[in-house]
Write a structure and sequence with these properties.
Blueprint: E1 8-9, E2 12-16, H1 20-32, E3 41-43, E4 47-51, E5 59-65, E6 76-80
Antiparallel strand pairs: 1-5, 2-4, 3-4, 5-6
Length: 109
Amino acid sequence: MLMDVEMTGFVTGKAQVRTVKDLRDLVKWCDKYQVRGESEIDWGSGCVYLDLHGSASVAPATWIECGDHLVDDIHFDILVETHSHPEHKTPAKYDWPSIDRYGDPSRPE
């Protein structure tokens, strides 16, 4: 039996902000990637550090397989959750695992 391990993570972003233009660019970047308004910032010497998961505490994290881009290459990444999803009542429009993204005729459609 495998040990029960709880994984959590803390993700920060770092940007050099030395001018008003830099600050405006940082805000645009935050808007583009939907960084939450309550995310904390920490001003350093010419840099701003952003809490990217939206709170000062750690967020849930899970292992994800990094993909089947190389045959027999099994590596994992850690996904740190930045938001939660309510239970969906409508099924997804696409069945993504069945989509042949590689153009391989031997793969099922």
